[in-house]
Design goal:
binds flavin-adenine dinucleotide, about 450 residues, single chain, alpha+beta, Uridine Diphospho-n-acetylenolpyruvylglucosamine Reductase, domain 2
Length: about 450
C-alpha cells in the first residue's frame, strides 16, 4: 500500500467529472466531513462521484495506486471505518434520482438518495417503502445493512425487500445482481453491507399501504419503571401490524423541541400500526391504560413516518453503544431504568429499546445474508459528543447501559446500530458468515473495498 500522492490525485481529477479533494485543499475539511460530526475522517483523498463512470474510474485508479475505496453516502455510520489513511473516500451524495413504478410496486434509487427523497414520490402513489426513522439516512447504506422500519414486524428487513442491485466491482465493471443474475452476489448484498462493490442503484419492493396510525405516548421519566414493564409484557402479544420503540429521553432545552417536551426527562413509546383504526386502538389499549401525559397517535400518510422518531435531520456529533436483547423481564427493565433513568446521572440523550419480533423473526421466502434479526429488542444508547470530553463521558454512559443489560443480551449485533467497530461474526449465522467471506474473496480478492463493517 502507498499513500495517495499528488500524481494520484491529479489522475483522479483528470478522469472524474465530480469534485476531487486532497489534504491541503481549501475545502478539505468540509469535503471529508461525515454526518456524525464526532468522527474525524482523514482519507487519502475524497471523490464526489457524479455518475457510474466516475465510480468506475475511482475504483480502477485507487486499485492501481494500491489504495482502498470506502463508499459513503452520508456518513451516518462512519464511526467503525477506522483509519482511512490508504483509502479514497468515495462520496455518492451527488448521485440522486428516484423512480417509482406504481404498477410493479417497485422503486429505483441511485447511490446517494436519502429516505426523504423517496417517501414523497412513493407516497404519492399510495405506496410505502420500508424507510427508517430518520429522513436523511442514506437508502443504500441502510438497506445493505438490514433496515428496521416502522413496518418491520409486518414486512421484515428492508434488505430482504431489495429486488436488484447495480454496482461497480473491484475490477471497475458495472454489474447487475438480482434473482437471476449474479445470485451469490445478490444474496451477499442483502445484509452483507458495503463489502462487495460500490452500489450505484438499488431497486426494492413497495407496499400498498397509504396510511398508518402512528404517534407517541409520553410520561414523565419517573414513570419509566411501570411503563416499560408494561410495554415489555405488551410486546409479547402485540400484533405484527404494530412496531414500536421505547425510549428514556433527556430532551435538550432547544427551541426546535416542541414546548411540552422541551428540556424534559420523559419516557416515550412511539410506533406505527398499519391496519384499520379499530385494530390500532385495540393494539394500543394496554399501553393507554397507563394514562400517558400525552397521546399523539393519529392517522397519517405513511410518508410521514420518516419523521415520527424526531431524529436529528442535520449532521450531529454523537457517540453510542448497542446490543441485542433476547428477553426483557422486570429485572431487565429495572436495570435499564437504573442505568439511564431518574437518579442514574446518565448523560445519554436517549436510551432506546426497539421492538423486534414478528416478521423480523421469520425467515422470508426471498432473503439474503440476513434473513432475520435474532433478538426480541435492539438496545441503543446515544448522547451528544460535541467535544472529546463529552464524547468520553457519553461513551462511558452508553457502555454502562449496555453492561447493565448484559445478563439479557444474546451476544448478537445489528450492524446498522453498531457505530463502533465490532466483531462482525456476531451479526450473522455461522454458515452465512462463511459464505459472505467466500463471496468477498471471489469478487474483491485484493480487498479494495473498505466497508464500515468488514466481513
Ligand atoms: C439518526 C439515525 C437514525 C437511524 N435510524 C435507523 C432506523 O430506523 N433503522 C435502521 O435500521 N437503521 C437506522 N439507523 C442506522 C443506519 O441504517 C446506518 O447508520 C446506515 O449505515 C446508514 O447508511 P448511510 O448510507 O446513511 O451511512 P454511511 O455511513 O454513508 O454508509 C454506511 C456504510 O454503508 C455502505 N455504503 C453506503 N453507501 C454505499 C454504496 N453506494 N455502495 C456500497 N456500500 C455503501 C458502506 O460500507 C458505508 O460505510 C439510523 C442511524 C442514525 C444515525
Amino acid at each position: 500500500m502507498t499513500t495517495a500522492t499528488i500524481p494520484d490525485v491529479r489522475d483522479l481529477r483528470a478522469t472524474v467529472a465530480g469534485a476531487v479533494f486532497a489534504p491541503g485543499d481549501a475545502d478539505w475539511d468540509a469535503a471529508r466531513q461525515a454526518w456524525n460530526l464526532a468522527v474525524d475522517q482523514q482519507p487519502a483523498a475524497v471523490a464526489y462521484c457524479a455518475d457510474e463512470d466516475d465510480v468506475a474510474s475511482v475504483v480502477r485508479l485507487a486499485r492501481e495506486a494500491g489504495l482502498r475505496v470506502a463508499p459513503q453516502g452520508t456518513g451516518h455510520n462512519a464511526g467503525p471505518l477506522g483509519s482511512l489513511e490508504h483509502t479514497v473516500l468515495l462520496r455518492t451524495s451527488s448521485m440522486r434520482g428516484v423512480e417509482v413504478n406504481p404498477v410493479r410496486r417497485r422503486a429505483r434509487v441511485r447511490a446517494g438518495d436519502l429516505w426523504q427523497d423517496v417517501v414523497g414520490p412513493v407516497g404519492a402513489h399510495g405506496l410505502t417503502a420500508l424507510s427508517g426513522s430518520s429522513p436523511d439516512v442514506g437508502v443504500v447504506g441502510y438497506s445493505l445493512g438490514g433496515g428496521i422500519s416502522w413496518l418491520a414486524r409486518r414486512h421484515g428487513l428492508q434488505a430482504n425487500n431489495i429486488l436488484a442491485v447495480e454496482l461497480i466491482t473491484s475490477e471497475g465493471e458495472l454489474v447487475r445482481a438480482d434473482r437471476d443474475r449474479e445470485p451469490d452476489l445478490f444474496w451477499a448484498l442483502r445484509g452483507g453491507g458495503g463489502n462487495f462493490g460500490v452500489v450505484t442503484a438499488l431497486e426494492f419492493a413497495l407496499h400498498p399501504i397509504a396510511e398508518a396510525h402512528a404517534g407517541a405516548l409520553v410520561w414523565d421519566w419517573e414513570e419509566a419503571g411501570p411503563v416499560l414493564r408494561r410495554w415489555a409484557e405488551w410486546c409479547e402479544t402485540a400484533p405484527d401490524e404494530i412496531t414500536t420503540s421505547a425510549r428514556i429521553l433527556q430532551m435538550p432545552p432547544a427551541p426546535e423541541v416542541p414546548e411540552p417536551l422541551r428540556g424534559r426527562q420523559i419516557v416515550m413509546i412511539d410506533g406505527a400500526y398499519t391496519g384499520d383504526r379499530g385494530g390500532a386502538d385495540a393494539a394500543l389499549a394496554g399501553l393507554r391504560e397507563l394514562r400517558p401525559e400525552l397521546d399523539m397517535f393519529a392517522t397519517m400518510p405513511t410518508a410521514a413516518l420518516v419523521q415520527l422518531h424526531g431524529d436529528p435531520e442535520e449532521p450531529t456529533p454523537a457517540a453510542s453503544d448497542h446490543s441485542m436483547i433476547g428477553v426483557l423481564p422486570d429485572d431487565a427493565v429495572d436495570a435499564f431504568v437504573a442505568a439511564a433513568g431518574p437518579g442514574s446521572g446518565s448523560l445519554l440523550m436517549m436510551a432506546e429499546l426497539r421492538q423486534l419480533g414478528g416478521a423480523l423473526a421469520r425467515v422470508p421466502a426471498e432473503h439474503g445474508a440476513l434473513p432475520t434479526l435474532d433478538a426480541a429488542f435492539a438496545l441503543f444508547g446515544l448522547g451528544l459528543a460535541a467535544d472529546p470530553e463529552s464524547e468520553a463521558a457519553v461513551r462511558a454512559d452508553a457502555a454502562r447501559l449496555v453492561a447493565a443489560m448484559t445478563p439479557w443480551a444474546n451476544g448478537r449485533t445489528y450492524l446498522n446500530f453498531a457505530e463502533d467497530a465490532v466483531d462482525t461474526t456476531s451479526a450473522y449465522g455461522e454458515d452465512a458468515y462463511a459464505r459472505l467471506g467466500r463471496i468477498r474473496a471471489q469478487v474483491d480478492p485484493q480487498g479494495v473495498f473498505h466497508a464500515n463493517h468488514p466481513v
